[in-house]
Design a protein that fits this description.
Transferase(Phosphotransferase), domain 1, 4 helices, alpha+beta, three-stranded antiparallel β-sheet, globular
Length: about 140
């Protein structure tokens, strides 16, 4: 389990000792995002391995919260598909793709992925919102 504190500029994730593997996985992807300059991963601000803390730039609000104000979630599927496919081309599956793990900057409408605890090179999608299935279904219907 992790605790999350959000300020205007930073999102601070603090992990428990029993979640060390999740912490390491999350940190790996923020470091990868920083090293490869991946535009859809929020910038890593700081981290502390001894305290199991990761701080990243606050880039917006969850897509889930944003769409509660009237926007249609499915309208964002093309952008989500683009990000998802770029991530898969790099050899990684998010495995927890949910609307609460996709952040939108309300001003620019740019999307970001967060919560990489279950991300790896093997597809084991834990997404109960079926976003990946919706993306793939939309792709098949366009090919017809």
């Amino acid at each position: 389990m992790k605790s999350v504190k959000i300020t205007k500029d930073i999102v601070k994730n603090k992990y428990e000792k029993e979640d060390l593997e999740m912490f390491k996985n999350e940190l790996f992807f923020y470091l990868l995002g920083q090293q490869k300059n991946i535009s859809f991963i929020p910038k890593l601000v700081s981290y502390d391995c001894s305290k199991l803390i990761i701080c990243v730039e606050n880039v917006g609000t969850t897509l889930e919260e944003y769409c509660n104000s009237g926007e249609e979630l499915d309208d964002f599927l093309p952008k989500i598909k683009n990000i998802y496919n770029r991530f898969v081309k790099m050899g990684y599956y998010h495995n927890d793709l949910r609307y609460k793990n996709i952040i939108i900057n309300p001003d620019t409408k740019k999307l970001y992925l967060i919560d990489f605890e279950f991300t790896n090179g093997e597809y084991k999608d834990l997404d109960d919102e079926n976003i990946v299935k919706k993306i793939k279904k939309k792709s098949r219907s366009k090919k017809k």
